[in-house]
Structure formats: C-alpha cells, structure tokens
C-alpha cells in the first residue's frame, strides 16, 4: 500500500496439532485503513485474527505492529501496544454491569482516546443500560459492549471477528456504521465478516482467504465486482 503500514503479517503459518489452518499468509493494514478478510466457513479467518492478536501462537512467520515484532507475544502484552481484538464470542463478563465491563481496561494503547461518554455516544443503547448486568443484554447489545470495551483501550488497530453475526439487519447496520466511524477517528480496522456485501461497503481493501491461504486481494470495489470472489466466498 501507499499508506504507512501499521500491521504487516508475513508468511504466517498456524496449526492445531497436525491440522494446518493458515499457510504462509501475508497481508498489511495501513494507518487509517479498513481491511476486510473474506472467506467461507472454515477458511481460517478466526485463526488468522487469533494468530495476529496472540490468542494463538503462530508456527512461523512474522507480525509487525506499530514498528515492533509481536509474533509469539501474549495477548495482554499485544493489547497494551494498541491492538484490540473483539472476538466472535464477544467475551464480556456477564456477572458485571455494563459500566463495570467498560471500566475494566486500565491501560492506554496509544491511539485515539475513548471515554465512557464516547462509547455511549457511539452506542446510545449502552448508555440506557449502564447499570444492567452484561449477561442480561441482548446479543446485539453485547456486541456493542464488546466493541466499546475494545475502544476503551485507546487502540490504534481493532480486529473484529464477524461483528454483525446474529444481529438484525438494523443492528448490523448500526454496528458497521460505528466501525466506519472509527476510521474517521483515525483508528485502523481489520474486519472479518460473513456478510461480504456489508464488509466491502465499509472496507477500503480486502483479502480472500481460502483453506488457509490468501487467494486474492484488491480494492473493495475490485473484490465486489469479481465473479471469482463470489466463488471463493461460497467455497465452490
Ligand atoms: P467460520 O467462518 O466458520 O468461523 P473461519 O474462517 O473463522 O470459519 P477458523 O475457525 O479459523 O475458520 O477454522 C479454520 C480451520 O481450523 C477449520 O478447518 C477448523 O476446523 C480448524 N480449527 C479451528 N479451531 C480449531 C481447534 N481449536 N482445534 C482444531 N482445529 C481447529
């Protein structure tokens, strides 16, 4: 890319025992970019995010983030460098209030700052539920909370794993619009989405992952217009 690269992944390989889930994956995310990862079920999208954020230790390859080498570092150490991972399972603390969940972050990743009021401005629904237990939120509200918590860490980059999964069309629109808004605040995004159309609407560029390998890359427009991508996406 012509932009300054914030994240550079090179030759990343990851496996579960003998099952190789990622092979020689290389990609980059420029500063202020939204980059989408597209792929069928089982293509390795979640594995890729986990290998980048330190949840899964890669077998080989390098991951450079904000100028430093992070492959093999622990997730908590990587998040302190300014990378927030909002996982598919959401992983909020159900027994704590919304406000307490948002208050758990006690470090600053060095990106644009988000205070509680900023998260509430982004997701007004959370503001009405600050004292409610997180476990009693709807699926969509839990997703908003997980995103909000990621932002409280003042990230430079946010990794999103299927943020609109299981949400109504209206809520997924709201979540994707909020993600688009992060870019306007100078935050970079790596986005895994089932909903390819929606992802390419907000992304600048994208990569197609097919059985653990990158098989195509291009601008969001190129990818949206390519019939090959539809094939890869459907796993045909
Ligand atoms: P989906 O869209 O269905 O979530 P995905 O693209 O995110 O799929 P991954 O979850 O990364 O795909 O899975 C990639 C491959 O690795 C799959 O073949 C999957 O069965 C395998 N895999 C994932 N997690 C494990 C695990 N903990 N142990 C063994 N194999 C795993």
UniProtKB/TrEMBL annotation:
Record SMART domains: AAA
Lipid metabolism keyword on record: no
Gene3D superfamilies, A to Z: P-loop containing nucleotide triphosphate hydrolases (3.40.50.300)
Domain ABC transporter span(s) in chain numbering: 7-236
GO MF terms, alphabetically ordered: ATP binding; ATP hydrolysis activity; branched-chain amino acid transmembrane transporter activity
PROSITE patterns recorded: ABC_TRANSPORTER_1, ABC_TRANSPORTER_2
PANTHER family to which the protein is assigned, alphabetical: HIGH-AFFINITY BRANCHED-CHAIN AMINO ACID TRANSPORT ATP-BINDING PROTEIN LIVF (PTHR43820)
Family: Belongs to the ABC transporter superfamily.
Protein name: Amino acid/amide ABC transporter ATP-binding protein 2, HAAT family
Organism: Mesorhizobium australicum
């Amino acid at each position: 890319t012509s932009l300054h690269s914030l994240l550079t992944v090179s030759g990343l390989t990851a496996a579960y025992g003998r099952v190789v889930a990622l092979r020689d994956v290389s990609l980059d995310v420029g500063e202020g970019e939204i980059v989408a990862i597209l792929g069928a079920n089982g293509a390795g999208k979640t594995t890729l995010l986990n290998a980048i954020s330190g949840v899964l230790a890669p077998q080989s390859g390098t991951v450079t983030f904000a100028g430093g080498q992070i492959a093999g570092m622990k997730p908590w150490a990587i998040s302190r460098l300014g990378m927030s991972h909002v996982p598919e399972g959401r992983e909020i603390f159900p027994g704590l209030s919304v406000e307490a969940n948002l208050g758990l972050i006690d470090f600053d990743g060095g990106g644009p700052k988000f205070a509680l009021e900023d998260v509430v401005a982004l997701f007004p629904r959370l503001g009405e539920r600050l004292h409610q237990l997180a476990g009693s939120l709807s699926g969509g509200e839990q997703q908003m909370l997980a995103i909000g918590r990621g932002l409280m860490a003042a990230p430079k980059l946010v990794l999103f794993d299927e943020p609109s999964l299981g949400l109504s069309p209206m809520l997924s629109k709201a979540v994707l619009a909020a993600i688009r808004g992060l870019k306007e605040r100078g935050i970079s995004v790596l986005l895994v989405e089932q909903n390819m159309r929606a992802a390419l609407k907000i992304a600048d560029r994208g990569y197609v992952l097919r059985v653990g390998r990158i098989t195509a890359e291009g601008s969001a427009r190129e990818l949206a217009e390519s019939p090959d991508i539809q094939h890869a996406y459907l796993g045909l």
